[in-house]
Amino acid sequence: MIHQFEINGTNMVLDVNSGAVHILDPEAAKVLSCYDNDGMPVNEKMELLEKEYGHEQINEIRSELGGLISEGLLYADNPYEDMFADVKGSTMVKALCLHIAHDCNMRCKYCFAGEGDYNGEKSVMPVEVAKKAIDFVIANSGNRKNIEIDFFGGEPLLNMETVKETVRYAREKEQIHNKCFRFTITTNGILLNDETNDYLNSTMDNIVLSLDGRKEVNDTMRVRRDGTGTYETILPKFKKLVSTRKDKDYYVRGTFTSKNLDFSKDVIHMADSGFEQLSMEPVVLKDGSGFEIKAEHLEKIFSEYEKLARMLLERKRANKGVNFFHFMIDLDGGPCIVKRLRGCGSGSEYLAVTPAGELFPCHQFAGFQEFKMGNVFTGIDRPDIIDKFKKINVYTREKCRECWARFYCSGGCTANAWQFKKDLSGVYEIGCEMQKKRIECALWLKANENSG
Question: What is the pLDDT of residues 35-46, one digit of tens each?
Answer without folding.
Answer: 887 778 888 888
